[in-house]
Amino acid sequence: MFPLYDENRSYTTPIITYFLIIANVAVFFFFFLQGMSTLEAAIQTLGVIPLYIMKGKRLWTLLTSMFMHADILHLAGNMLYLYIFGDNVEDAFGKFKYIIFYLLCGFGASFIHISSIAISLPSIRELNLQIPAVGASGAISGVLGAYMILYPHARIKTLVISWFITIVTIPAYYYIGIWFIYQFIMGIYSLTGLFSNVAFWAHIGGFLTGVVIVKVWKIKPKRRRLVYYYIPVEYY
Fold first, then answer.
1. Which of 128, 138, 141, 171 has its CA 20 to 30 Å from the CA of residue 180?
2. In this structure, how many other beta carbons lie within 10 angstroms of the beta carbon of residue 234?
3. Cα dist. 74→24, 66, 107 in Å?
């Protein structure tokens, strides 16, 4: 399933969401256009390498890794989700709180990702501790978590590809719920030695961080404003 758009109008221009999308795209193409070797070197330098973080080194990569992506598809997928779900969450939080929220979700994602590697099987732990993790998906997973809590019944236009291709409209809690269950199942498998270049536990960590922040900060969705018009009527 791929989300196409949501039927949930935002009340303000999502300036921060647009800025984050532009920043992610700009950073990726800055390195990508210089060649793959430059991009790969940047990933090694700016990505979160768990072994270093556990030693208290290169902590700044917890921030820079959120704006790095491995390839165009990685970037496009993340930005699509941020574009669809970010505007309403930004509406609910307000500009400043939304920035803090987004970054905290990214940090939470990295923490859970590193923790999952620390408790994984020894046969895969040593290798995974040295693999850089990059991408905005941890922070965006937090946006999904917040969206599900704030707008559970918002309608999501979704492209479904199976035996045939169709477009359906489903509630946000259903779409995001299925997404989270998939992340959790794959996350469990990854602890048993299943190799994947997807940091499922970062997604789980970001999602749960988003849910917790909404609850702790007591964020509420924007209320729908009803406008009543008075129409003069003559009675005969």
1. 128
2. 4
3. 11, 12, 19
Q: What is the 3-state secondary structure (H, E, C) of 125-180?
A: HHHHCCCCECCCHHHHHHHHHHHHHHCCCCEEEEEEECCCEEEEEEEHHHHHHHHH
pLDDT-derived band of residue 223, with 50, 70 and 90 as boundaries?
low
Mean pLDDT, residues 77-98: 97
Residue-level pLDDT at 195 = 66
Q: What domains sit in the chain, N to C, each tagged with a CATH number?
A: 2-216 (1.20.1540.10)
Instruction: Return the residue matching tokens 């299943």.
Output: 194
What is the C-alpha to C-alpha distance for residues 81 and 98, in angstroms, rounded to an integer?
16
Which own/partner pairs from 18-23 qualify as long-range (CB within 8 Å, at least 24 positions apart)?
20/82, 20/86, 20/102, 20/136, 21/79, 21/82, 21/83, 23/67
E strand spans, the chain? 2-6, 155-161, 165-171
Decide: 85 and 147 in contact? Cβ < 8 Å: yes
3-state helix, strand, coil in the chain (%, to 5): 60, 10, 30
For position 2, what pLDDT does the model report?
86
Please count the other Cβ atoms lying within 10 Å of the Cβ belonging to residue 25: 16
Whole-number pLDDT of residue 124: 82
The Cα 181–Cα 187 span in angstroms is 10
DSSP 71: S
